[in-house]
Amino acid sequence: MSDFSIYFQLGWQHILDLNGYDHILFVLVLCCSYTLKDWKRLLWLVTAFTLGHSITLALAVFKIVKVDTAWIEFLIPITILLTAIYNLPKRRTQRNPWVLYSMTLFFGLIHGLGFSNYLQSLLGQEASILVPLLSFNIGLEFGQLIIVFFVILLSELMLKIFQVSNRDWSFFLSSAVFGISFIMAIERLPL
């Protein structure tokens, strides 16, 4: 198996890992108010998250940035919580897309630091880290697109088959994710 495929697989498995479901929750709440017709916006949002994630992974791997892991583990559910709050009072059409893109990019920076120690230890054995880092991030993007696909499929099912309004569906998912991320944040509070 080539280095590219090993790190590509590690990237998508990282995002789809049910034991570390914080990324799944983030992508879920990020795209829960969108429908199939909004696929381009979703692609940009997910890519903004991957870009932020990639930047901090690279900075950490090159030992330019080092942050206390306890604080990052606390901040990750805070990013999920804030994204859920952003969804609650507004209709999708009332949200400023640049605020959401900027917020998603920034939150990607935080999430990238959450995985940087593990990836740094793996890449420490590599002679060249550029290809593994790139392939990991491509795998990350692929995994996020799988989550987006399932969320959009579920959303379409709820909106078209069960006639749930987009606003109610987004409110339901955002509220559920808010509750889960709030508990996660309390459990991870660094003291």
From TrEMBL:
Domain of life: Bacteria
Keyword terms: Membrane, Transmembrane, Transmembrane helix
InterPro entries according to UniProt: Put_HupE_UreJ
Pfam families: HupE_UreJ_2
Transmembrane segments: 43-64, 70-86, 98-118, 138-157, 169-186
Listed name of the protein: HupE/UreJ family protein
Provenance organism: Sphingobacterium kyonggiense
